[in-house]
User: Which sequence fits this backbone?
């Protein structure tokens, strides 16, 4: 780790609160995928719909195990569908594992976009809110 004047310097592109969870190793996930808690053999799986009440966070890092890091809140990269503009509220999309621009900040709001993208599928940096809102 880098030191400057005897003090530890932490350099990160993003900042979050993340935990490790078990997931089926046969599922192909990518960083930014929205996940939910499950009652099955594994602890998490990809979100299923825009009204998924079991949403917990976003895949943050994929070590070479079946225990990925999941950002539960804070700043991270998220997968989005359609155009998202910096400052937009984001919510779960009808496509599994994706977010979309959410208009107002109602109960479906899961975070705020910090960057923009205008493609059909892409990624933005966002601040995730903790838990259901």
Assistant:
């Amino acid at each position: 780790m880098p030191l400057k004047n005897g003090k530890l310097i932490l350099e990160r592109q993003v900042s979050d609160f993340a935990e490790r969870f078990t997931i089926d190793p046969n599922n192909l996930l990518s960083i930014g995928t929205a996940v939910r808690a499950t009652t099955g053999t594994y602890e998490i799986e990809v979100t299923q719909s825009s009204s998924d009440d079991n949403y917990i966070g976003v895949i943050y890092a994929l070590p070479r195990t079946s225990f990925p890091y999941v950002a539960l809140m804070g700043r991270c990269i998220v997968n989005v569908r359609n155009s998202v503009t910096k400052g937009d509220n984001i919510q779960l999309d009808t496509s599994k594992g994706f977010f979309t621009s959410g208009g107002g900040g109602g109960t479906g709001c899961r975070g705020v976009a910090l960057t923009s993208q205008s493609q059909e599928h892409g990624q933005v940096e966002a601040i995730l809110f903790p838990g259901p809102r």
